[in-house]
Amino acid sequence: MRATRFFISTLKEAPADAEIVSHKLMMRAGMIKRLGSGIYNYMPMGLRVIRKVENIVREEMNRSNAIEMLMPVVQPAELWQETGRWDKMGPELMRVKDRHGREYAIQPTSEEVITDVVRSEIKSYRQLPLNFYHIQTKFRDERRPRFGLMRGREFTMKDAYSFDRNVDGLKQSYQVMFDAYTRIFTRFGLEFRAVAADNGAIGGSGSHEFHVIADTGEDAIVYCPSSDYAANMEAAEAVAPSGERAAASAALTKTATPGKAKCEDVAELLAIPLTSTVKSIVLTVETEEKGALHKQVWLLLLRGDHELNEIKVSKIPGLANNRFATEDEIVEHFGTRPGYLGPINTSLPVKIVADRTVAMMSDFVCGANEADFHFTGANWGRDLPEAQVADLRNVVAGDASPDGKGVLAIQRGIEVGHVFQLGTSYSESMKATFLDENGKPQFLQMGCYGIGVTRILGAAIEQNFDDKGIIWPTAIAPFEVVLCPMGMDKSEAVKEQVESLYAALLAAGVDVILDDRGQRPGAMFADWELIGVPHRIVIGDRGLKDGMLEYQGRRDTEATAVAVPDMLSFILAKLAGK
Amino acid sequence: MRATRFFISTLKEAPADAEIVSHKLMMRAGMIKRLGSGIYNYMPMGLRVIRKVENIVREEMNRSNAIEMLMPVVQPAELWQETGRWDKMGPELMRVKDRHGREYAIQPTSEEVITDVVRSEIKSYRQLPLNFYHIQTKFRDERRPRFGLMRGREFTMKDAYSFDRNVDGLKQSYQVMFDAYTRIFTRFGLEFRAVAADNGAIGGSGSHEFHVIADTGEDAIVYCPSSDYAANMEAAEAVAPSGERAAASAALTKTATPGKAKCEDVAELLAIPLTSTVKSIVLTVETEEKGALHKQVWLLLLRGDHELNEIKVSKIPGLANNRFATEDEIVEHFGTRPGYLGPINTSLPVKIVADRTVAMMSDFVCGANEADFHFTGANWGRDLPEAQVADLRNVVAGDASPDGKGVLAIQRGIEVGHVFQLGTSYSESMKATFLDENGKPQFLQMGCYGIGVTRILGAAIEQNFDDKGIIWPTAIAPFEVVLCPMGMDKSEAVKEQVESLYAALLAAGVDVILDDRGQRPGAMFADWELIGVPHRIVIGDRGLKDGMLEYQGRRDTEATAVAVPDMLSFILAKLAGK
Fold it and tell me: What is the CATH number of domain B3-237+410-462?
């Protein structure tokens, strides 16, 4: 490609509404252009990256025997009503009426449509397993679109759906996709991690997220550096501390802690470690029984330095539909307002659940259910009955790994892929069955597998940039190599050399752009550093008089002189990762 | 590709709602699957054809220095309001509100968005010319979607937009696109014709449609077999008959024609040719002048066997906003009801326009403005004043070609492409300017260029099918070659031969499918004839014992025996069109 036949549009400054680095750099590099809130034009430079991402995804999906098709953007409401998602999904689901008043969804995902296709196409177990995928425009009406392609409203996604005869088959199909995703993210050239995930609201069992590692990532991901354990924060298990609970050594003492409602303040006042304190979280669950509203108040106990994990809490029997208790409910059950609550001497009985760590504590400090007072020296079994124990908290760095093979570390990630065992949730609600070997109808076992194609661009940049701009991995760079001639219009030698190298690179199948715009070197270099092309060759009279060209990798701090006849093989070796 | 790793789903019968052959065959061949009215899933077999069409389009657009980008499906209403199309477009424009109540269009086309992009990107004449294109999903809420992909609601289209400094530049950009389209449709392997078109409601001047020729096409296209003149019916000019008008030879005579309101019936009653009769069409134009409604009645005269061309009529000064006159208006002006109207002796004055052919008639028959009476022997200048003359009618086969090089013929076509000189209509309404050499702002000269990607599939089939199924041109066939082994699971020789040929074809870059489903020959052949793969190779023990394979082209009536070692070069020659 010649730059004069392409469209290059760079900006010195990012627009004010660009908050994060990938958004700023994509705007400045002319990769995207805002059309509306969370809606972007993909400019020619950005589209090249998208196509490279799509092609890698497509190749690896095909290699895994997934079959490409294309499902529509505008999907009839009836299918979404069959699964109940028409009502369950909130305003994120963009809805539209046609001229006859019929309702449609602008698709955010295609479980309903693929299940509709498959239930009419699949008759027999002999047709299984099957895996269909498509790469399509999607829309999610985010309440607050932001961060460019990271949380846009219109975006491109690859979604695949597998269909199997039984759970074993599903697990196999899932593993095939897991492996394909591992190849895909490896080929992108991005540092990533697959982490066990909660199976969430979508139903089913078994799920992994693929995260691109980046300090700016909005998700915390948990891993064990000495084993292959990895999970997202929602799913990472906090195991019980090892060993026995220490024996009580202090007496239960009501201690004045005036104005110290937080564990941190109490610890400071009493000059004890925060890890000796216990904090109280009060939840309410309302259920309707025979038309009457029944209200149950729960007290959850966490060590003072730990954080509640709401996903884990919602899985405790009886706590699925909890909410935080109101102040009135708290006063009614504890006899005091929040800040001094604890498990001892509540006004009314409450159900108590202690986190695994709290259940192993002795001589701990907790609220006394009286304003401005805490108990010190509290001990299980002696001062209060042993409570129900559960994993209630987020793990922290240094926690023991659940696989027993070391301690956990935490890093930030950006979720770009998700594989999910759906089971029969969709096939049951949409009556998608096949006939098994005995001629009996069975529900199809489904899996779903997504990759946020346009989101990859944002994530790749969050991981790979410097103060000059983007640093694309070669596999998804808009161009692999840029040729920068110095004074092409003035020097015949430069013109000849750059044209011959350009032709040789094209012939070798290299995705090269020749910057023939005639810009000054400073502006030209700044453009390509901003755009992030990974390999740059400078052709100038100064080097040519010694028969040399200049190579510089985007991460290199200095240029390398390469003799003219060696440059082609030098670049091919670079592109081959040598 | 192995058939067992692909998804093949054929039907014996087409669904009842499939009305035309391409729709029926695409449904039966498992290329598309209906999701809703005018909305289809593109199944794996159909998507392969779409991708081949897209790739040819993309290659030729790139070759023409058009630059690919991607504009969104969901577009803010504000831009559509700037050009007035938000109001002008009827319910065909699908409109949607987001969670904040803001309005958006589901794009049917992207003139507004590209003009918005360009007005902020283009500052100077030095950046011009430019041509941007995208291949994107579009939606048009047709009142009555039908004919499968021919008149669907959701469809894929390539649309390109050129930007130039002046009309000369626009004309050059237009010609480049015209030539690209010619290459594209030639590469598809379809019989097509580019025809001059009316510039329609979109504004601007200069337009051609590209039609795929098919007897079932819904458009009549006009061409001259002995020259390169071609136009669609709206635009084809009906020239005046050559020579002089014959002198009057009969007297004007009021003749009783009781109950004969139509020219055909009058001609039959009077035993004269239909070409001696003149029919009357009455139009009304209402204009508001200084708050008062002014009404003008027009009488258009056509030869009895000719048809009115409404596009031509609307271009006559004063007739832009015409409607058919009401019966009351007719009675008021002509003193009689429709059926016996004519230009002689009207009750009130009307403006008369004679078609070019009518203006050359003498001794003609027309209504006498009295029920059950016609005039015979009517003559211009003698019985009524010479009237305003214009081209009012559709051409018919045998009319003189406007280029004077022969006579016109008419064939049926399916419009699949359209190139259009928009001029400054969009740039003016959206204030898209550039600075010229003198630093003065000028409006951008725009062109737009569309190809209905998914519609190509329907049109290709309407042109190429037989009673067995589809006959794809090789360039856009889902597979170029199908290998049909006879008893692959029983014969080691067949298995060995088919695998070796399959590997050789893949290595030669042939897009081949190996049908390893183990079906009976009859069913297998029927599937591939229905799907329309252009080249078939049968591998069976019967031929192999003589060292032979069987080749049959999809249009061949008989198979050709080809020696095993010759088959690869034989097929490569076929694919090269030899």
Answer: 3.30.930.10
Set of chain A residues whose Cβ sits within 8 Å of the Cβ of B73: 73, 106, 137, 139, 154
Q: Which H or E run contains A562?
A: strand A560-563
CB-nearest to B74 from A33, A72, A106 is A106
Which DSSP helix (H) or strand (E) runs through A448?
A: strand A445-452
Distance, in Å, from the CA atom of B5 to the CA atom of A65, rounded to the nearest integer, reads: 6
Over residues A120-178, the pLDDT tens digits come to: 999 999 999 999 999 999 999 999 898 888 889 999 999 999 999 999 999 999 999 99
| H-only helix segments in B430-512 | 453-463, 492-507
What distance in Å separates the CA atoms of residue A415 and residue A208, rounded to the nearest whole number? 10
Of B411, B433, B453, B420, the C-alpha closest to B120 is B433
Chain B, residues 298-327, CB within 8 A of chain A, namely none
Instruction: Determine the length of chain B.
Output: 578
CATH class of the domain defined by A15-196+423-462:
alpha beta
CATH annotation of A479-575: 3.40.50.800
Give the burial class of B397: count Cβ atoms within 10 A of its Cβ; 0-12 exposed, 13-18 middle, 19 or more buried: exposed
- Cβ contact B25:B469 at 8 Å: yes
Rounded Cα distance, B221 and B201, in Å: 20
Q: At residue B205, does pLDDT exceed 60?
A: no
Cβ atoms of B177 and B169 closer than 8 Å: no
Instruction: Give the residue from A59, A73, A132, A155 with the most B CB atoms within 10 Å of its CB, the best one to mutate.
Output: A73
Under 8 Å between Cβ of B526 and B533:
no
**Distance, in angstroms, between A96 CA and closest chain B CA?**
5
Where do the CATH 3.30.930.10 domains begin and end in chain B? 3-237+410-462
The answer to whether the Cα torsion of A281, A287, A289, A294 is positive or negative is positive
Whether A219 contacts A211, CB under 8 Å: yes
| Each residue's pLDDT tens digit, B424-452 | 999 999 999 999 999 999 999 999 999 99
Where does chain A hold its CATH 3.30.930.10 domain(s)? 15-196+423-462
B253-390 belongs to CATH 3.90.960.10: yes
- CATH 3.90.960.10 location in chain B: 253-390
Nearest-neighbour CA in chain A from B143: distance (Å): 7
Nearest residue to A184 (alpha-carbon basis) of A51, A55, A52, A57: A57
ipTM for the complex? 0.92
B506 touches chain A (CB under 8 A): no
